[in-house]
Amino acid sequence: MPETLDIVTMRSLVAVAQCGGFHKAARVLHLTQAAVSRHVQRLEDTLKVQLVTREGRAIRFTQDGERFLTHATRILEAHDAALDDFIDRTQTVTIGAMDHAVDILLPALVHQLRAALPRKNIQLRLGRSARLRDAVNRNQLDAALVLERLTSDPTEIGAIPTQWVAGRELATAEHPPRRRVPLVLFDHDCGLRRGAIDTIAAAGLRYDISAESPDLAGIQAAVRTNLGYTLLPALGRLPDSIYAVSGLPEPPGVVMRTQTATHVTDTDARTIRDVVQDVLALHHA
């Protein structure tokens, strides 16, 4: 019986070439590095040639490896095109995300989720963490990126620093204010609200809640008009007309977590968590 080539092993080989090594290929494929190495070894055993050589931590494709890489790439393209033609992508994965993630995290998150789950439609639902958690628990969402809790440990996995922000007038004022500190806060059941109040109170400062809002858009509008200071995750560039404030007490960080519903397969849940972790690491580096 003639030898046959395995699609999975060829996908690993092409990933090694595209990523420049076994470690990065394993992360992209959501496999262990040992599994990727076994795949390449199986190809070499089938073809009876050496495809890749290791030079310390670097890898180099042999002449036979370069030649076979061309065939493998074409085979995978034809294989994936056939699947696209015959498989109906009707399954939708619905991911919840906090309002804070819209501008900074979501473009990269959607891009990487679509790459990691190519056979599924990715749909997003934005909202507050408490509501997203409840929707996951009710199996109304497949997964959600949420603010889990406050933390004082910046090295904790998923930890993101927070920062005080304000409109231009308050951002350039004396800090801390001699009068009571005006705060713009999310309404109840919000970690950022608790973090802001507890930080100000622990420093012995008095405060007034000058505005409340159930959503990020309302918070930003109140801050822009200098109604008060608020606490936001430090993720990338601040929105227009909102400025970082120094001089107020050091706030805690927040821990972001990915929560998945019970009906989601272990493979998909792991893929979603890995993608979210990679995106958070990219924007928190």
Automatic annotation (TrEMBL):
Species annotation: Naumannella cuiyingiana
Pfam families hit by this protein: HTH_1, LysR_substrate
One MF annotation (Gene Ontology) recorded for this entry: DNA binding
Record-stated family: Belongs to the LysR transcriptional regulatory family.
This protein's UniProt keywords: DNA-binding, Transcription, Transcription regulation
Range of residues in the leader sequence: none
Family annotation (Gene3D superfamilies): Periplasmic binding protein-like II, Winged helix-like DNA-binding domain superfamily/Winged helix DNA-binding domain
Domain HTH lysR-type residue range list: 10-62
Protein name as annotated: DNA-binding transcriptional LysR family regulator
InterPro entries in the cross-refs: LTTR, LysR_HTH_N, LysR_subst-bd, WH-like_DNA-bd_sf, WH_DNA-bd_sf
